């Protein structure tokens, strides 16, 4: 003989049984658990998406370097003039080698940098016509900073090169 619980959760025989939850209580408790779980999931998703956005924006927009400051808003390169490039080449070459150039043989814009050819006295002799000279090619970036230099030719003053 099975006893059915009454509306207040007690059996008709007066024995106390575990109270059954009302359907409305089950729904509210479950929905509150779901809403807290979905809120924490939304917070995690928001945090990860904001982290991804900041990481992607860091990749897309690198910090402006001093060199990129010489570029205009349109992204075109604003390079220094040939005269200024020659002056900077002489100044920086002299500082590095300790030898002041005797003359400028040539200058040109190559691809994305300046190339300046300088004539330098490598060894002074008596008479001056016996001096040993060399031509150096100095490469400068678009801002006029020295990137590289190479000795291209070496000869005695007054003698034609072969």
Describe the protein.
The chain is of the alpha+beta class and 162 residues long. Helices cover 33% and strands 25% of the residues. The protein contains two helices and four strands. Strands 1-2-3-4 form a four-stranded antiparallel sheet, with helices on one face. The protein is elongated and about 50 Å long.
Descriptive key words:
single chain, 162 residues, alpha+beta, four-stranded antiparallel sheet, 33% helix, 25% strand, elongated
Structural class: alpha+beta
> Could you spell the SSE succession in H and E letters?
HHEEEE
Helix amount: 25-40%
Strand content range: 25-35%
Uncertain residue segments:
53-59, 61-74
What value does the average pLDDT take?
Answer: 73
Distance between the termini: 125 Å
What is the C-alpha radius of gyration, as a whole number of Å?
Answer: 41 Å
**Tally of DSSP helical segments:** 2
Q: Major β-sheet, in short?
A: 4 strands, antiparallel
Number of strands: 4
Shape: elongated
Give, in spatial order, the strands making up the sheet with the most strands.
1-2-3-4
């Amino acid at each position: 003989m099975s006893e059915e619980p009454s509306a207040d959760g007690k059996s008709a025989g007066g024995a106390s049984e575990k109270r059954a939850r009302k359907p409305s209580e089950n729904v509210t408790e479950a929905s509150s658990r779901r809403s807290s779980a979905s809120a924490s999931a939304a917070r995690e998703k928001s945090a990860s998406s904001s982290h991804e956005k900041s990481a992607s924006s860091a990749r897309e927009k690198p910090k402006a370097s001093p060199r990129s400051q010489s570029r205009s808003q349109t992204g075109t390169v604003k390079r220094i003039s040939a005269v200024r490039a020659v002056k900077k080449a002489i100044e920086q070459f002299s500082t590095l080698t300790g030898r002041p150039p005797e003359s400028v043989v040539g200058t040109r814009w190559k691809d994305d940098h300046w190339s300046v050819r300088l004539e330098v006295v490598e060894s002074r002799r008596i008479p001056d016509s016996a001096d040993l000279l060399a031509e150096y090619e100095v490469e400068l970036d678009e801002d006029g900073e020295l990137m590289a230099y190479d000795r291209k030719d070496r000869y005695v003053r007054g003698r034609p090169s072969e």
